[in-house]
Amino acid sequence: NMFAETLLLGRVKNESKTISNSSDTEQPSSDKITKWIINWLSNKLPLDPDQIDPNQSVMSFGLDSIGAVELETEINNTFNINLFVGDFIENNSIKFLAEEGYKQTKL
After folding, report:
1. All residues at 6 or more sequence positions from 71 whose CB lies less than 8 Å from its CB, including other chains
2. What is the per-residue pLDDT across 13-39, written as a single tens digit (0 to 9) for each?
3. For the segment 94-104, what is each residue's pLDDT rounded down to a tens digit?
4. Helix or strand (DSSP H, E) at 5
5. What is the 3-state secondary structure (H, E, C) of 37-84?
6. What predicted TM-score, i.e. pTM, was given to this entire model?
């Protein structure tokens, strides 16, 4: 029927648009990952992004272990990388974590 064909055609167009958009996604830089972490922290903690120094560890801003696990999950899913909660708890700086994550995107 004409209605079903129109729906199917629209769905195919939308899917092909989504596919072409996803291939246009650029690789994240360590700078983008740093900014992402800063924004994530400012949304999770009562901090302004300008108060977050990327040379300090994520834990130094008051993030607890549950928050570190949430950060681990979200950053790994967002950038398709494998940082571990121990990386955050070991007091590595935000900048260091971003650089480690960026190295993984280039593999």
Report:
1. 37, 40, 44, 58, 63, 85, 88
2. 444 333 433 333 456 899 999 999 999
3. 999 999 999 99
4. helix 2-23
5. HHHHHHHHCCCCHHHCCCCCEHHHHCCCHHHHHHHHHHHHHHHCCCCC
6. 0.73
